């Protein structure tokens, strides 16, 4: 009852929970395509690469307005994505190696810039380091409005280009044979994923944002083989984890909101990996037990009344079971 009363009366909690829910929905929708396209680590690289953009935006403008810092992060994230794709295209460096290279260089540069900013005799720079781990408690109504508007734009684009995104994600060669501009679709989808990552930096930070992007989609993938249902489930999982994580961090003192949200979605992922039908580990154990029982029954019927009785092991080896 106290928790319910807190949710209904605490304005700050309502704002933060709403912002976290919006982030969860955006991350769930765009993260589904990143998982399907096997580009999960791209979110990790982009989120870390956003740090120097935040620092440079502050150095240039001397402003800590959210929109200014996130614009710098967006430019830096897009630049890192372009460099990763260019390295893979024009060199023999593999995708994972290019990710690791760009991630290290950009994140290291961001740390250097933040260290330099902290030494500047200007009290206005305080709090920039919160973007590393996030500080959801600093979300304002204006920030939530920005997240909501960006969320509406991103989800609208997903709906409009649903067919193109779906075809390119599953079979880009087939999509190209049908006349679709695969490069343009990939570019648009990459920009949208980068934007989704940037939206969540203030809430969960550059280090944890990759988990927020991928975890809801991974959990949803365990429950369905249909992309549309996967996107819906992923957004629901993201929103639920954002709300529950925010509430838990408010009820229990000294619990950071961003890491708590990631812990909640991680629990959802673990539950899905164990209990999801068809794909869950528990279902797999049950299915193996059932198959073994059926094979044993078939083996006993086949050898009934025969003189040459072979062992179950020999039978399964002979039949290739």
From TrEMBL:
This is Metal ABC transporter permease. It is a multi-pass membrane protein. The chain crosses the membrane at residues 12-35, 41-61, 68-91, 97-115, 144-162, 187-215, 227-248, 260-282. It comes from the Bacteria. Its main location: membrane. Belongs to the ABC-3 integral membrane protein family. InterPro entries: ABC_TroCD (IPR001626). It comes from Clostridium simiarum. The keyword Nucleotide-binding does not apply. It holds the Pfam family ABC-3. Keywords: Cell membrane, Membrane, Transmembrane, Transmembrane helix, Transport. It is found in: Cell membrane.
């Amino acid at each position: 009852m106290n928790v319910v009363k807190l949710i209904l009366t605490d304005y700050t909690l309502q704002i933060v929970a709403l912002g976290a829910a919006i982030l969860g929905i955006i991350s769930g929708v765009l993260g589904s395509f990143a998982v399907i396209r096997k580009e999960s680590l791209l979110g990790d690289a982009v989120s870390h690469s956003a740090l120097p953009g935040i620092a440079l935006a502050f150095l240039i403008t001397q402003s800590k307005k959210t929109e200014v810092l996130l614009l710098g992060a967006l430019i830096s994230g897009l630049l890192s994505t372009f460099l990763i794709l260019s390295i893979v295209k024009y060199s023999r460096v593999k995708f994972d190696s290019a990710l690791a290279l760009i991630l290290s260089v950009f994140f290291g540069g961001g740390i250097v810039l933040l260290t330099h900013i902290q030494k500047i005799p200007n009290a206005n720079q305080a709090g920039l380091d919160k973007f590393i781990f996030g500080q959801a408690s600093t979300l304002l109504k204006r920030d939530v409005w920005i997240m909501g508007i960006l969320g509406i734009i991103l989800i609208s684009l997903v709906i409009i280009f649903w067919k193109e995104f779906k075809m390119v994600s599953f079979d880009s060669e087939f999509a190209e044979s049908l006349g679709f501009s695969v490069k343009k679709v990939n570019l648009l989808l990459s920009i949208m994923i980068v934007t989704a990552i940037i939206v969540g930096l203030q809430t969960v930070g550059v280090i944890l944002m990759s988990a927020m992007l991928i975890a809801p989609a991974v959990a949803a993938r365990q429950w369905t083989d249909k992309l549309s249902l996967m996107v819906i489930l992923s957004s629901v999982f993201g929103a639920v984890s954002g709300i529950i994580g925010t509430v838990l961090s408010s009820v229990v003192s000294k619990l950071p909101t961003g890491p708590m949200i990631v812990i909640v979605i991680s629990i959802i992922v673990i539950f899905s990996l164990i209990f999801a039908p068809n794909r869950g580990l528990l279902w797999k154990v049950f299915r193996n037990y059932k198959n073994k029982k059926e094979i044993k029954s078939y083996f006993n019927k086949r050898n009934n009344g025969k003189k040459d009785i072979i062992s179950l092991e020999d039978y399964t080896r002979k039949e290739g079971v």
